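User: My instructor asked us to take a sequence, write out its structure as tokens, and then describe one feature of it. I'm not sure where to start. Here is the sequence I was given:
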Amino acid sequence: MVRPTGRMNRTEDLHVKAREETIDRTGGACARCKARIPTPGEPKSKKAVAGSKQLRVITMLRSPDGATIAAMMKTTGWQQHSVRGFLAGIVRKKLKLNLDSKKIDGSRFYRIKGANGIKASGRSSKRRAA
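Assistant: Let's start with the prediction itself. The structure tokens for your sequence are:
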């Protein structure tokens, strides 16, 4: 909303001042939390950290036997819904890995199908090469 006088009310003014105080202009870091703000020129890494929980779960899924949700929960310390969310959101959607599940003796085993878990998606791109 544009005010005819061009002035901000008191709460808007306080929010602007608070925002200005939190950013340290010299170091590019938030003055309150000291978190570093990345610069636009820095590359953003999408690789998993060597000993990360996500990498451990993916390694478990790449084994020929696969892994159960209980085993993944024990390895990572995550709850069941977090493991299921990781499988659906990260493994299937973001990494586009072909996740297979089989029920053996009442336990469901999950594993990544394909050539050593390397992007084994059966779908092909609808786009044509230029």
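For the description part of your assignment, you could build on this observation: The radius of gyration is 23 Å. Try explaining in your own words what that tells you about the chain.
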